[in-house]
Amino acid sequence: MSERQSDDQVEALPHDNRRQVLYWRLLARLFDPEEQPALERAGLAVVEDIGLPAALLDPQASVDSIVQRHPELAAEFDGLMVTDEDQGPDADPDGEVTRAGAAEVRRAALVSKVLLNVFSTGSGAVSAGQLSRWQSDAGWLERALGCAPGDLRGGRGSGGSGGVAPTGTGGGGRTPDLSRLIPAIGPELGALEADLVKRMHLREVLADPKLAARLTPSMSLVEQLLRDKNNLSGVALANAKDLIRRFVDEVADVLRTQVEKATVGAIDRSVPPKRVFRNLDLDRTIWKNLTNYSPEEERLYVDRLYYRHTARKTTPQRLIVVVDQSGSMVDSMVNCTILASIFAGLPKVDVHLIAYDTQALDLTPWVHDPFETLLRTQLGGGTDGTVAMALAEPKIAEPRNTVVVWISDFYEWRSQPLFDSMAALHRSGVKFIPVGSVTSSGRGSVNPWFRERFKDQGTPVLSGHIRKLVQELKTFLG
């Protein structure tokens, strides 16, 4: 059979069969880097027949490069893989979106492109350009899932996709429900990125300013830089510090927005409101002056202006953040260091920061500068929380005005003595918040022995998105 006859048969296939051709090709390329000629020809015929560029089938072509040549496709990638009921009235009762057959074939081609570029990472050494391209493609996958680039990898929220700026939903302000994904997609993307970073000759890349400039800061990259910082010097060290600072600044912008969404402290009505325009209570002013309305003139005469109270009561509070800096907790270490610096900038909040593995380090003098704090961390392997408790306990002067946030997976060398100390803090009136993970993906394993005892004590382990911890702290400090 000639190649032309093969193409004609592909064009005559029902839509479901065309989709299968594209997905079989995807699976073949994921599990075997070698091309399967029959599947490649069939896939090319399907793609060209539905009016999509042949570059979609090229594993070396990034999504950025395709969108730059075909900008109309950017909007199609946004929300491409969101199929829940939030899509609108076209969704069926099972949550699946009803689409025309031809549209589903087109969607299958775009989905295949994103998945192949992200999950087919090859082997061997990785260049700065390859890492940058993968980060960009991962950003497009996150957008396809209804998130902002960087969200699922524990990153910066809306930044870091690289290349083409978002033109569609990019998350659209709505948090998609990804709980049905098995395995959870965020941790898997983070693991892939971490593997690529490990396969880079990072020291050589950092020593070359041009190559270093191509790196996009990410949690995986920052982790590797923190582990290797003592082995760097000169230009390489300067470039490493620049990448860490860029990442810290980007994450801080995201977390600062979350903290500032609600002002800490209750309204203090004993303080007269400031009589400025921004505090004018227009609704109350109109309501209180309605008796002065003149129907003949159709005019409201205002005798008195009313203003909103904006002053807030602030009781001095002490926040003690204890962070496990062992190798398994790097994501939490970075997030909580930045978060502590943000809360340290709030009025009447006295923040202390302690990091530990088998030794404890009081980082309070640098708590306002998360960059300097991170440079002083030493990522270790063991975990002995009793040494951190020895530093934390003397800092508690007024238990009922103190909150202790303890971030760890709680796989401890001396479990019982540490728990006894934590229970004593709780009984004294300290607000004790054990936290199992403080990441964007929410991934984290917590020692079941501690989890059960914290639950029985009435201080269950807080795990999941960092927004949960932000809300807990603001509730207490308010």
TrEMBL record:
InterPro entries in the cross-refs: LolB, Uncharacterised_CoxE, VWF_A, vWFA_dom_sf
Residues annotated as domain VWFA: 316-474
Region Disordered, residue ranges: 151-176
Protein name: VWA containing CoxE family protein
Gly residues: compositionally biased ranges: 155-174
Species per Swiss-Prot/TrEMBL record: Streptomyces antibioticus
Pfam families hit by this protein: VWA_CoxE
SMART domains linked: VWA (SM00327)
